[in-house]
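ARCHIVE CARD
SHELF: 3
SLOT: left
DATA:
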Amino acid sequence: MSLDNKKISPQAILALKEALSVIFWKKEELQDFTKLSIENSAIIGTINWNATKRESVKELIERMINRQDLYKTDLMNLITSVSDMNDFSHLKFWDEDGTKTKKAEEAVEKLRNLTKGYFQITKEQEDAKKRKIETEKQINKNKSLESELNILKTSFMQIASGTNNQKRGFELEKFLYDLFLLYDLSPKGSFKNYGEQIDGAFTFDGTDYLMEAKWSKNVDRGELATFCYKVETKFKTAVGLLITIDGLTKEAISPHFKSIIIMDGSDLMVILEGRVTLPDLLLKKRRKAIETGNIYVNYQNL
């Protein structure tokens, strides 16, 4: 099937908009589904998802229609992914009388009827089925991530309620290991290197990081300088991540500290609440440090 020679009918476009508006109740699930169904997924981040679902869907589809030189294949991919849907159990929690499920089934069936001439049993359709499977896997992975973050959040709050600083420090190292492992950042537990105590290490975006974790008090300039020295005396591409739950003293930051970035307790909480992923936050902090020289900017100010 040659997509270049196929024209998407106005009726099919209207049916696609309607189906996308009703097949998910939560807007976040609709975003995940759409992003995973298309190849040029960067467009998803440019859509106003604070509007209603119908308004957001309308903006997305109309922008794709207006630039079919970029998005025609993705429109077909989206039609395929929606048409292949036959399980609407994710609506059950929100659907007391069954009307939402019925509406979703009817919208998908209408889209199928209007677009069945486009699709035959070809390699493209087989690929679409594979994408559907991968989409479902990713959605399930996202649900699993949310569950794991809730467990870690409970663990973090239990550690915070402790009064034994030494025990709390050990528990924090274990907590951080589990958090970084959840995001596949290849963490390493605490170790000693030529007499130096290193709280941990991990790899992110092709760069090795040394990690130090502090909870008992605000970190001062001397402690920052010591950690910077540990980092700078290692391989020249190493970077340091200091995690200080209680923040820093006012005079701690020095313009000479250029080899580390800093994360605090509020940063950890936004990760545990699912408002940002750990890799995304690390990337934003590192970019801010590179652009401005500021090694300590928490999530709210990024």
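SLOT: right
DATA:
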Amino acid sequence: MSRNPWLTQIRRLDPERDYEEIFRLHFSHEFPWDSVQALSFALFRTYAVPSIGELLDKTGEFGNRVQKRYDDTNLLMDQVVESGFTGSGRAAIRRINQMHGSYDISNEDFVYVLATFVVVPIRWLQKFGWRSLTENEIRSTVLYYREFGRHMGLKGVPEDYAGFAALLDEYERDHFAFSAGGKAVADSTLDLLSTFPPYRFLPKSVVHRFAYALMDEPLLDTFGYPTPSRLERLGAEGALKLRGRFVRFLPPRLRPFRARDQRGVRSYPNGYRIEELGTFPRGCPVAHTAPKQHEHSHESLHSPALEDSK
């Protein structure tokens, strides 16, 4: 295949030792567009968990600054891909931890979100990717996000892909439920999708129907979205599979993908500094009547994994 140079390199590397480099090649050269779409859907799924969706809604970020929220997430996560878990990448994780440290978020919710980052992109690529994933890529994705979780101070992170997949499916089965806040965040996200190329050239209703056609029944039911017709599902999935077949014959991507180069990232035309990305909340906007159920958020600000970068 035309992309053998990157694939050959991925197969030669040892995922137990070289997982950062394998993940970087996988994300930035082999599957950049698919990875971004899949991660967007991964985050979208988390809104169906009321403890997550309600909190995100009450921050006001999705109602007032959804574009900036999208951009900040993309830029911070991509900085870790680009730089690894040292230097600028570690600074990005610290910024993420600082934001999360202001909210009452359970360790279980954090680990679930981490599981979506592992499982949803792999499932997406297994269905729509231009080639099959290698075992090296799957294992490296697991190890990359396990390391990410370690830098966030998370506990009980699965050790392999099967563990992540089982955790995600079980958590969604037990926790998916309608909430007004989660629905508001989901609607705002779909509206933002309608402003990105090529979707902005289509009626918003068509973009929404396309998105519904890529969602599973539990997610649709939770948000109260209409069930797509069989023809709509075939059309949406067929379009993505056709794109994969087309990409298969393109030359290898020599210049690595960077989030800051995306046309959809529009909040910083004059550049940005990592430490200024994101939000700077003063306390959790959700009222709690019971004591905190975790100590993660505040511990993560002083995680030993981050101390040597200060």
